[in-house]
Design a protein that fits this description.
Layout: H1 9-39, H2 45-72, H3 81-87, H4 99-118, H5 121-127, H6 130-153
Helix pairs in contact: 1-2, 1-3, 1-4, 1-5, 2-6, 4-6
GO molecular function, one term: ferric iron binding
Family: Belongs to the Dps family.
Protein name: Ferritin
Amino acid sequence: MQIDIGINEKNRTDIATGLGRVLADSYALYLKTHNFHWNVTGPMFQTLHTMFEQQYTELAMAVDELAERIRSLGAFAPASFSAYSELSSIPEEKGVPAAKDMIKQLVEGHETVIKTARALYPLCDEADDDATADLLTQRIQIHEKTAWMLRSLLEA
């Protein structure tokens, strides 16, 4: 059945493609945050272990919202490690860095998601896609707050 939501097919495809990048970045950040939750050590263990759990739990909900928005636009959501690897701008962590380096990597990851999401606004404006713009605004607010909280842990 044809999709008739007031956004033409090309714009829906372009927006869904951009959302796929946001989804891939979000999933890569989810995986990195979960990794750090499991493997953090040191004097800040309890604080970081708990904080990282809250963050990866929030990210798990976010990837579902992003994928469902992609589906609402009539596209299939990327859903494999190889697709995420191709689409994400967040580098994979293969080791177990020190706690302070974990925090720095997560700040950088949240900032990356913010920039990836922000890049979609012109497409949303062009297509009059307020629903996607609203979702992006919500995601950006959460990532900016999380980056600020993580960054605060690094201050003297």
